[in-house]
Amino acid sequence: MTVFVWVLIVLAGLALYGLIRHGHLGYGSAVVAGVFGFLLGTTDVGQPALRLIADLINQIPQL
């Protein structure tokens, strides 16, 4: 994985932590969201989604 994907993972984790901490999302919902993301990543959709994110990141300097 590229550094940018790791940064996105960390940012998503921090956002999830913030949502839980401020009461906008419960622990049960967070677990369901995490499991859903993990399972989605193991399907055939996972690799194209990572490529899409990588392509979007690569387009940022050209904006």
Describe the structure.
This protein is mainly alpha-helical and 63 residues long. 76% of the residues lie in helices and 0% in strands. It is built from 3 helices and no strands. It is flat. The mean pLDDT is 80.
In brief:
The protein has 63 residues and is mainly alpha-helical. It is 76% helix and 0% strand.
Topology, pairings included?
Blueprint: H1 3-21, H2 27-41, H3 46-59
Key attributes of the depicted protein:
flat
**Could you say which structural class the secondary elements and strand pairing correspond to?**
mainly alpha
Instruction: List unreliable stretches of 5+ residues.
Output: none
N-to-C SSE string, H for helix and E for strand: HHH
- Which percent bin holds the helix content? over 70%
The proportion of residues in beta strands is under 5%
Give the C-alpha Rg.
14 Å
| pLDDT averaged over residues | 80
Oligomer: single chain
Q: What would the principal axes of the Cα set say about the shape?
A: flat
**Treating each run of at least 4 consecutive H or I residues as one helix, how many helices?**
3
**What does the main sheet amount to?**
none
